[in-house]
Design goal:
The complex is a heterotrimer. Helices cover 56% and strands 3% of the residues of chain A. Chain A is mainly alpha-helical. In chain B, helix 3 packs parallel to helix 5, helix 10 runs antiparallel to helix 11 and helix 17 packs antiparallel against helix 19. The radius of gyration of chain B is 22 Å and the shape is globular. The chains are: A mainly alpha, B mainly alpha, C mainly alpha. At the B-C interface, helix 6, helix 7 and helix 8 of B face helix 2, helix 3 and helix 4 of C.
C-alpha cells in the first residue's frame, strides 16, 4: 500500500454508534416514534462517519485504531482501508433505507416485539461495521460471531415454531461456519505464520509455509466464511430464514449477513493469502485453490438458479436467487486477473442494491395485499404499479441487462474469465459458461413474475409449467367468484394435492373438502379458505390463519359442483367411463391422507402471511389516508365477502379483482405507504445509477484501488 | 511480611468456622455475619498476596518454621495466586446469594467457612500429602453442605459423592505413596528434582502418576466417572451448588495441573506417550459426552452439571497436550470456567428463587419478566460457548492453538483429534445453551397466565415474581467481568509468563 | 520394591526388584496383602447393596492404603526415630510414613462419620438402606424419572452399584 496509515478513532466510532443507539432504543420502548428516531439518527450518523473517511481513503489513506491487544501478537484493531470502506459505505447507507422501510413494514403489519427488533438491528449493524473495518482475522472473527448472535433474534422474531426452528438452524450453520471453521483456519494461520493481520496482497509467510497446511487453512477459512455467503451445500439456512420479517430478509440478503460472508471470503483471498498464492496453491488435475473456489461458486450458482425456478413463494425464490448471486462473488474471487476481481467486488454493491429492491417489493406486496405466492399475483401490476415496476428493473439487472448494476459486474467477470481462460487455464471457460447460463436462468425465474404481474389477468392465469411439472400450463382463475370459469375443470389436481407434484404444497382445500368446499364452513361465499378454526389438515398448524388462501377456489369450484362425498368425508368422484370427458384429468379421490399433506416437503412453506401471529390488518397509523382498507386492495385484505375471518390472511386478489391504480395516481403512491415505497424506489435508483455511472458513484473507483494494490505487477490492469 | 498471609488465609476461615456454633448459643443469626466478615478478610488477603506475587515474584512460607523438604510449605506463585483470588472472590460473592436463598442455620455457615479454608489450603499448599489433607477437608465439608437441606434425596446424592470422592482421594494418596517410595520426599519442589534422578520411565513413577491422575479425574468428574456430579449439583441447595460448581472441581483441576506440570514436569509427560494419549482420549470423550448428555437434560442444574464434565475435559486435555500455550489455555480456562459457572448457577438459582423455575421448559419467555437476569444469563452462556469477546473464548483460543501446535509438530493422531474436538466443542456447547436462550426469549408464551409449578425446595425469603437485588447485582458484575476479561489476553500472558517459563525450561 | 531405608533425609532410591511371583509372595507379602485388601474393599464397595456395607468396603479400601504406607516404612533392624545425645542409633525408622498414616486414619474416620450420618438421614426418610429399594422409592416419589435421568430410556439392570 502506498499510503499513509493514520491513527484515527473513526472506525471505532462507526462501530460504536449503533451499539450505543441500541441502548437508547431499548430505553425508549414506550414511545415508538422516539425509538424509531434513534434508529434513524444512528443510521445517519454512522453513514456520515463512514462517508467522512471516504475521500481520503480514495486517495490511499488507511485509518487505523487499535483498541487493545487481545492475545499476544494479535491486536484488536479496526482499520478502514478501501475494501473495508466499500462494505461499510454500502452497509451503513443501506441501513438508512432499510430503517425507513422497517418502520413502514413493522407498523403496517402491526408486529410485536418491535423494540427488540430495532435494537437487534442496531447491534447487527454495529457488528457489520466491525467486520468491515476488522484489521485481522481474529477481530473479524469476533465481529462475525457477534453478527450471528445479534441477527438471531431477528430470524426468530415471530416466536412461532417455524421461526424458532429456522433460528436454530441459522445459529447452528453460522456458528459452525464461524466458530468452528473460521476459528480453526485462524488458529492454523497463526501457527503457520505467527500473524493474522490483513496484509494487502497476502501474508508473506504463508507463501513459504507448507502448501498442504496452507491449503487446509484456505479451505477452512473460505468455507467458514462461505457458510454465511450461502455456498452449497451449506446454504440451507438461507431459505429457512425467510420466515423472518422482510426487512430482516432484506438485511440478511443484501446488506449484512451474506455480504459479510462474501466480504470475509474476499478478505481471505485478497488480504490473507493474496490472489497470487490462491492461484498458485495447486491441487491435482490442474486445479488450484482459487479454481476450486470458483468451481464451487459455479456449481452453487447453477444449482440454486435451477431450484429457484420451481419455487412459487416469492421470498423463497428470491432466497435461492441470492444464493446463486452470492456465488458470483465467490466465483469472481477465484479468478486470477484484474477483471475478475473487480467484477466480483463490484457485484457486492450491485447485488445489494438490486436484491434489496426485490425483497422490499416482496415485503410491500405482503403488507399491502397479503400475497406471497407468485401464482396468486396475476395482475397485481394493476394494484401495485410502482412496486412491480421497481421489481422489473431490479430483475433485469439481476439478469445482466445493461443500464442496471448487474450488467457492469457481470461484464467484468466475463472478461476476467475469458482472459484467465485464454492465458492461464481452460477451466475458466467453463466458469464463463456458467455465468452466461446463469443469466439465462435469471431471466427464466424472474420473467414469470413480471409476466404474471403485468400481463395476466386474475380470471385467466397460466400455471407455470416448471412450477407444476405440467408441460403446457393451464389457465385458471385466481379469483374466488364462485362461478366456474372456463378451463377450471382441470383444476382438481392441477396445482396441488397431487401427491407427487406439489411443489409448494398449498393444497389444503383437498383435505378439507367434505361438503364440497370447506370443512365445517358455513359462511364460505367465495370459497377462499376453510373456516378459520378448522382449516388445517395438512396445511397449517395455526388455526386462525389460512395463509395462502386463494388456493381452494380453483379446485373447490370444480369439486363443489361435481364431486360426491361419502359419509366419512372422502371425496369419491364417479369414475364410470360413460359420461366422462377424457380431455381433462380425472377428479381425485381425496381421503385427506396424502403423505404430502401430512409430511409437507420443503417445497411446502407452512410459514407465510400472518402465520402464527394474529395480525391486525386494519390499523395503519402511519399510512396515508388514501389507503383505504375497505376496498379490496388495502391491507385489510380481502375481507370483502368473507366473514368470520377475523385475523386471517389470504393472498390473492379479492373478489372483484385487483384495484386498478392508474394514471397519475400511480405516482401519488396510492398503492402502499411511502415508508415502504420510498426505499424501494431509492434502492432501485441506486441500482440503475450504479449501472450507468459506476465511477461517479465512487464504487468502481474504490474497487479499482483495492485490486490495484493487491495484484502483482504482471497482472495489473491492462 | 505478606508471607504470613498465606497461613493466615488458611487458618482464619478454619478458626472462624467455630464461631457460628459457639456464638450460636447466644445469638441466633450469627452465622452469616461471621461468614461474610471472614470471607471479606480472605478476599483482602488474596488481593494483597496477588499484588505481591505479580509485582515482585513468588514467595512461600514454611509452616512451623520447619524448612522443606521436611517441613510443609505454602507457596504463592503466579498460578496459585490466581486460583486463590478466584476462591476468595467466589466464596465471598456466594454469600450474597446465600443470605437470600440458602440455609440459614449457623452450622451451615460453619461448614461454609471450613470449605473456604480447605479451598484456600488446596490452592496454596506446596506439599503432596498436605494437598491430600486439604482435598479431604474440602470433600468432607462439601458432602455436608450438599446435604444441607436435610432431605433424604440430597443425603443420597451426597453419599454417592462421598463414596466416589473418597475413592478418588484414596487413589491419589496411593499415588503419592508410590511417589514417596520412589523419591523419599513429599515436598512438591523436592519431588520434582528427585524424580529427575529416578527417571521418568520408571514403572513406579508412572504408576504413581496414573493413580494420582485417576484420583483427580474422579474428583473433577471426567467421563466416565462423572456420574456423581449431576445428582450432587442438582440436589444441593442453590447457594451450595453455586459455590461447589465454581470452586470444588476447579481446585481439583488446579491440583492436577500443578502436580502434572510442577511436580512431574513436562519432561515426564513428553517421555510417556501412553499416558498423554490416554489423557487426551479421556478428555476428548468427556468433552463430547458431557455436551451430548447436557443437551439431553431438562433440569437446568443437571444440564450445567454435565456441562462441567465437558469443560473440565477441555482443561484436562491441556495436560495431554503439554505445550506452553496449552498450559496457558488451561489456566485461563480454569479461572474463566470457575467464574462462568459461578455466574450461571447464580443466575438459575436466582430465577428459581424468584419464579420457581427448575426445568428448561419453565423458563418460557421469562426474559420479558426478568430482563436483567435473562440478559446476564445469555451473556454468560454465550461466553461458555466461546463467543468472543469473552473469557471462554480466550481459554478456548489458547487451548486450540496449543493443540494445533502440538498436533502439527509431533503429528500424533491424538493431537490432531483433540484439536478437532476443541473446535467442534463450540457447536456442542451451543446445543444446550441455545435451548435455554431460545426458551428464555423466543418461546412465544404469555406469562401473565399463571401456571402451576412444582417448586421443589422452596427458598426462604424469595418473593415470587421479583428477584432480590443484591445477588442480581453480583450476577450482572460477573457477566461484565466475563466479557471484560475476554479482552485481557495480553494481561494474562504477561502475568503468567514467569510461571510458564519456569515450567517449560 | 524395597523398603525405604532413608533415615537422615537424604535421597532414597527405589529399586525395581526383578523376582518371580513366588518370591514376591513370600518376601513382600505385605504388598500383596495391600493389593488384595484394596480389591476386596473396592469389591465390597461396588457389589454390596447395603449402604453401610459400602462404607465398610470404603474403610477396607482405605485401610489397605494405610498398610501400604506402613509396610513401606519398615526398616530391618531399625530403631525408633529418637536421636539420643550419646548414641549412634543405627538405622532409624522414618517417622514420615507413620505420620502420614495417622493423618489418613483421622481423615478416614471423619469420612466414615459423615457417611454414616448421611446413612442415618437416608434411613430416617426412606426406611431402608438398600440401594435398589432406594431407587424404587425415589422413582415412585418422582425425584428420579422413570428410566434414567436422560429421560425416557429404560434403566439398565445393573442396579445402583454401577453408579458409584
Amino acid at each position: 500500500m502506498t499510503d499513509a496509515l493514520i491513527q484515527d478513532p473513526r472506525p471505532l466510532l462507526a462501530v460504536l454508534v449503533s451499539l450505543v443507539a441500541s441502548g437508547f432504543i431499548v430505553a425508549s420502548y414506550r414511545s415508538p416514534n422516539i425509538r424509531e428516531a434513534w434508529t434513524l439518527l444512528a443510521a445517519v450518523v454512522k453513514f456520515a462517519v463512514v462517508a467522512s473517511m471516504l475521500p481520503r481513503v480514495l486517495e490511499g489513506t488507511v485509518f487505523e485504531w487499535t483498541v487493545i491487544e487481545l492475545v499476544s501478537g494479535v491486536p484488536f484493531v479496526l482499520r478502514a482501508d478501501a475494501l473495508g470502506i466499500l462494505f461499510a459505505v454500502l452497509a451503513s447507507g443501506l441501513w438508512i433505507i432499510t430503517s425507513l422501510y422497517s418502520i413502514g413494514y413493522m407498523r403496517g403489519n402491526n408486529e410485536t416485539n418491535q423494540t427488540r427488533y430495532f435494537a437487534a438491528f442496531a447491534v447487527s449493524l454495529s457488528a457489520t461495521m466491525g467486520i468491515a473495518f476488522a484489521g485481522n482475522l481474529v477481530t473479524i472473527f469476533v465481529f462475525y460471531e457477534l453478527l450471528s448472535i445479534a441477527t438471531y433474534p431477528l430470524v426468530a422474531h415471530d416466536e412461532t415454531d417455524e421461526a424458532r426452528s429456522a433460528g436454530r438452524k441459522y445459529l447452528a450453520y453460522t456458528l459452525f461456519g464461524g466458530g468452528v471453521l473460521v476459528l480453526a483456519g485462524t488458529v492454523l494461520v497463526y501457527w503457520l505464520t505467527g500473524t493474522v493481520s490483513f496484509t494487502a496482497g497476502g501474508i508473506d509467510e504463508l507463501a513459504a509455509a507448507d502448501p498442504g497446511l496452507a491449503m487446509l487453512a484456505f479451505f477452512l477459512l473460505a468455507i467458514g466464511f462461505g457458510v454465511k455467503a450461502g455456498i452449497m451445500p451449506l446454504h440451507q439456512w438461507l431459505p429457512e430464514a425467510m420466515v423472518a420479517p422482510t426487512p430482516v430478509s432484506g438485511l440478511l440478503h443484501a446488506v449484512a449477513v451474506v455480504k459479510s460472508g462474501a466480504f470475509g471470503v474476499s478478505r481471505v483471498v485478497l488480504d490473507v493469502f493474496g490472489p497470487e498464492l490462491v492461484f498458485d496453491l495447486s491441487l491435482p488435475f490442474g486445479f488450484s485453490a482459487g479454481l476450486v473456489l470458483s468451481t464451487i461458486g459455479a456449481i452453487t450458482l447453477t444449482a440454486a438458479s435451477l431450484i429457484a425456478l420451481r419455487k412459487d413463494h416469492l421470498k423463497q425464490r428470491l432466497a435461492y436467487s441470492t444464493v446463486s448471486q452470492l456465488s458470483y462473488i465467490v466465483l469472481g474471487l477465484g479468478l486470477f486477473g484484474w477483471y475478475g476481481l473487480v467484477g466480483a467486488l463490484l457485484h457486492i454493491p450491485a447485488h445489494a442494491f438490486m436484491k434489496l429492491t426485490l425483497f422490499f417489493c416482496a415485503g410491500n406486496i405482503h403488507v399491502s395485499t397479503h400475497t406471497d405466492y407468485i401464482s396468486e399475483m396475476a395482475g397485481i401490476g394493476k394494484r401495485m404499479p410502482l412496486t412491480m415496476g421497481a421489481f422489473t428493473v431490479a430483475s433485469l439487472g439481476m439478469a445482466g441487462i445493461p443500464l442496471v448494476a448487474g450488467f457492469v459486474s457481470k461484464y467484468y467477470m466475463l472478461l476476467g474469465g475469458i482472459q484467465m481462460g485464454a492465458e492461464l487455464t481452460p477451466v475458466a471457460y467453463y466458469l464463463v459458461g456458467a455465468l452466461l447460463l446463469s443469466g439465462v436462468l435469471n431471466i427464466a425465474y424472474f420473467w414469470p413474475v413480471i409476466y404474471t404481474a403485468f400481463f395476466e389477468a386474475e380470471e385467466d392465469h397460466d400455471a407455470k409449467p416448471l412450477v407444476d411439472f405440467r408441460i403446457g400450463g393451464e389457465s385458471r382463475s385466481t379469483l374466488g367468484t364462485g362461478e366456474h370459469n372456463a378451463g377450471d375443470d382441470v383444476v382438481t389436481d392441477g396445482r396441488h394435492a397431487d401427491g407427487d407434484v406439489v411443489t409448494d404444497g398449498r393444497h389444503a382445500a383437498d383435505d378439507v373438502v367434505t361438503d364440497g368446499r370447506h370443512a365445517a364452513d358455513d359462511v364460505v361465499t367465495d370459497g377462499r379458505h376453510a373456516d378459520g378454526d378448522v382449516v388445517t389438515d395438512g396445511r397449517h398448524a395455526a388455526d386462525d390463519v389460512a395463509t395462502d388462501g386463494g388456493r381452494e377456489d380453483d379446485e373447490s369450484d370444480a369439486e363443489s359442483v361435481d364431486t360426491p362425498t361419502d359419509e366419512t368425508g372422502v371425496v369419491r368422484p364417479d369414475f364410470s367411463p360413460a359420461d366422462r370427458d377424457f380431455s381433462e384429468p380425472a377428479a381425485r379421490v381425496d381421503t385427506g391422507e396424502y403423505a404430502v399433506d401430512q409430511s409437507p416437503s420443503d417445497a411446502d412453506v407452512p410459514f407465510g402471511v400472518g402465520h402464527g401471529e394474529a395480525v391486525e390488518t386494519t390499523n395503519h397509523d402511519e399510512r396515508s389516508s388514501d389507503h383505504d382498507a375497505d376496498q379490496d386492495g388495502g391491507v385489510g385484505g380481502h375481507h370483502g365477502t368473507d366473514e368470520g375471518h377475523g385475523g386471517d390472511h389470504h393472498g390473492g386478489p379479492p373478489a372483484g379483482g385487483w384495484r386498478h391504480i392508474q394514471g397519475v395516481d400511480v405516482f401519488r403512491g396510492h398503492e402502499s405507504s411511502w415508508f415502504t415505497l420510498g426505499p424501494i424506489l431509492t434502492a432501485m435508483s441506486l441500482a440503475v445509477l450504479l449501472g450507468v455511472i459506476p465511477y461517479e458513484l465512487g464504487f468502481l473507483e474504490l474497487i479499482e484501488l483495492v485490486v490495484d494494490t493487491r495484484l502483482p505487477a504482471e497482472v495489473m490492469r491492462p | 511480611m505478606s508471607e504470613i498471609l498465606l497461613p493466615l488465609a488458611v487458618a482464619v476461615p478454619i478458626v472462624a468456622a467455630t464461631l457460628p456454633i459457639a456464638a450460636g448459643r447466644r445469638f441466633d443469626a450469627i452465622g452469616w455475619p461471621v461468614a461474610a466478615l471472614t470471607t471479606t478478610a480472605v478476599v483482602a488477603m488474596a488481593g494483597t498476596v496477588a499484588r505481591e506475587v505479580y509485582g515482585t515474584g513468588p514467595f512461600d512460607h514454611e509452616l512451623g518454621g520447619y524448612a522443606p523438604p521436611i517441613g510443609i510449605e505454602l507457596v504463592a506463585d503466579e498460578f496459585s495466586a490466581a486460583v486463590f483470588l478466584l476462591v476468595a472472590l467466589v466464596s465471598a460473592a456466594t454469600l450474597v446469594f446465600a443470605r437470600v436463598v440458602g440455609p440459614h442455620r449457623n452450622t451451615f455457615y460453619s461448614a461454609y467457612l471450613l470449605l473456604t479454608g480447605g479451598l484456600v489450603g488446596v490452592s496454596l499448599t506446596g506439599d503432596l500429602f498436605n494437598l491430600f489433607v486439604f482435598l479431604e477437608i474440602v470433600g468432607l465439608t462439601t458432602y455436608a453442605l450438599i446435604a444441607a437441606d436435610r432431605s433424604g434425596v440430597s443425603a443420597y446424592a451426597s453419599l454417592k459423592y462421598l463414596v466416589v470422592g473418597t475413592v478418588g482421594a484414596s487413589l491419589y494418596l496411593t499415588g503419592v505413596g508410590y511417589v514417596f517410595l520412589a523419591t523419599g520426599t513429599l515436598n512438591m519442589a523436592d519431588v520434582s528434582t528427585q524424580l529427575q534422578a529416578v527417571g521418568y520411565t520408571d514403572p513406579l513413577v508412572q504408576t504413581g502418576y496414573a493413580l494420582i491422575a485417576v484420583g483427580f479425574a474422579l474428583k473433577m468428574a471426567l467421563f466416565p466417572v462423572h456420574t456423581w456430579q449431576p445428582d450432587a449439583y442438582q440436589r444441593a441447595p442453590d447457594a451450595v451448588t453455586t459455590v461447589v460448581a465454581a470452586l470444588v472441581s476447579t481446585v481439583s483441576a488446579y491440583a492436577l495441573l500443578r502436580v502434572s506440570y510442577s511436580v512431574f514436569t513436562v519432561d515426564f509427560l513428553a517421555a510417556n506417550d501412553a499416558i498423554t494419549t490416554g489423557i487426551l482420549v479421556v478428555s476428548g470423550v468427556s468433552i463430547l459426552a458431557g455436551s451430548a448428555l447436557a443437551a439431553m437434560q431438562s433440569d437446568l442444574k443437571r444440564m450445567f452439571a454435565y456441562s462441567s464434565v465437558a469443560q473440565f475435559g477441555l482443561i484436562a486435555a491441556t495436560v495431554g497436550i503439554a505445550t506452553e500455550t496449552a498450559l496457558l489455555g488451561g489456566i485461563v480456562h480454569l479461572i474463566g470456567h470457575g467464574l462462568l459457572k459461578f455466574g450461571l448457577f447464580l443466575g438459575i438459582g436466582l430465577l428459581a428463587a424468584g419464579y420457581g423455575t427448575r426445568h428448561v421448559a419453565d423458563l418460557a419467555s421469562l426474559a420479558r419478566d426478568a430482563p436483567i437476569a435473562a440478559g446476564s444469563l445469555a451473556v454468560l452462556s454465550l461466553a461458555l460457548v466461546g463467543i468472543p469477546p469473552s473469557i471462554g473464548f480466550l481459554g478456548k483460543w489458547y487451548v486450540a492453538l496449543g493443540a494445533v501446535q502440538a498436533g502439527g509438530t509431533t503429528g500424533g493422531i491424538a493431537g490432531v483429534a483433540i484439536a478437532a474436538v476443541v473446535f467442534v466443542s463450540t457447536l456442542f456447547t451451543l446445543a444446550y445453551v441455545a435451548r435455554v436462550l431460545e426458551r428464555l426469549y423466543f418461546a412465544g408464551v404469555d406469562r401473565s397466565i399463571p401456571v402451576v409449578h412444582d417448586i421443589g425446595a422452596v427458598p426462604d425469603g424469595g418473593r415470587s415474581g421479583r428477584l432480590p437485588v443484591a445477588p442480581l447485582v453480583v450476577l450482572v458484575v460477573t457477566a461484565i467481568a466475563a466479557v471484560g476479561l475476554g479482552f485481557a489476553g495480553a494481561g494474562f500472558e504477561s502475568l503468567l509468563d514467569p510461571f510458564l517459563t519456569e515450567v517449560f525450561t | 520394591m524395597m523398603p525405604i531405608s532413608a533415615v537422615d533425609g537424604t535421597t532414597a532410591v527405589g529399586v525395581l526388584a526383578s523376582t518371580t511371583a513366588f518370591d514376591v509372595i513370600t518376601t513382600r507379602h505385605a504388598y500383596v496383602a495391600f493389593a488384595l485388601l484394596l480389591c476386596t474393599g473396592l469389591y465390597v464397595l461396588i457389589a454390596s447393596p447395603n449402604l453401610v456395607k459400602k462404607i465398610i468396603g470404603l474403610n477396607l479400601f482405605q485401610t489397605a492404603i494405610f498398610l501400604l504406607f506402613v509396610t513401606s516404612g519398615y526398616v530391618e533392624g531399625g530403631s525408633i526415630p529418637i536421636v539420643y545425645p550419646d548414641a549412634a542409633g543405627g538405622p532409624y525408622v522414618s517417622p514420615l510414613p507413620h505420620v502420614i498414616v495417622l493423618t489418613a486414619i483421622v481423615v478416614g474416620v471423619s469420612l466414615t462419620a459423615v457417611g454414616l450420618a448421611l446413612c442415618l438421614r437416608i434411613y430416617d426418610e426412606y426406611g431402608t438402606l438398600r440401594v435398589d429399594t432406594l431407587r424404587e422409592l425415589l422413582r415412585e416419589e418422582g425425584t428420579l424419572p422413570a428410566g434414567s435421568e436422560a429421560g425416557g430410556r429404560t434403566s439398565d439392570a445393573n442396579g445402583g452399584e454401577s453408579r458409584e
